[in-house]
Amino acid sequence: MADLGRMSINQATTREQHSLAQAIAAYAQAGVPGISIWRDKLAECGLEEAVRMVRDHGLQVSGLCRAGQFPAVDAAARQACLDDNKNAVDQAAVLGADCLIVVAGGLPEGSKDLPGARLMIRDSLGALLPYARAAGVTLAIEPLHPMYAGDRCAINTLSQALDLCDELGAGVGVAVDVYHLWWDPILQAQIKRAGDRILAFHVCDWLVPTTDLLLDRGMMGDGVIDIPKIREWVDDTGYDGLIEVEIFSAENWWKRPGGEVIRTCQERFNKNV
Asked: Domains in the chain, start-ordered, CATH in brackets?
């Protein structure tokens, strides 16, 4: 099983209980070594204060969520998106984040052109990448489950994400999230293909039945994903970075006290990751 010394908590896991400042303090007090930060919470806290708190509490920032959402209806909207993504790069650089998570975006409003959306994603990543390289920030493309292709992310398999990495070159890699990828029959082969381009590894569980496709993720061990097996595949590539617990759970974990959620994450990480 995974060492608790590799554990990070994605701030989404306690987003309803904690501000960023509260999450930093609570995770550190519990002995969690890492945090992944969301930009909306960062905006509430302020970048300078977040950097100070992360440093003072000795946390590692495993990722900044998120960049992306590239497809747009016109050139002006695409440029506005690129400008916002550059701001995300700047934030990731100041935070010293291990990577900037990229959730690429789905179809523009009114569109049914999925291949066209994917071309926009490729071109936008290509436009952002030189800026990220100059800032020393690595972009981690996170493929999302196909159910999100229409509105959140048109990159839906690890294979698709790695094809983009092959095309774009240095400075871009992938985030492997078991919730989005566990179903893929060629996942093991694609993880092996990813090799040292795995920049982030996210864990939670898939509940059966699930009551909400976005906000009903399970705690590790409560669902059907063989998390230890996927973790072994990831470790076999040489990945030795932090492993993020990322749970969106509107009707369960977001309604529990933050301390209980953190303790449960640690217990389940130790047993089920």
From this structure: 4-272 (3.20.20.150)
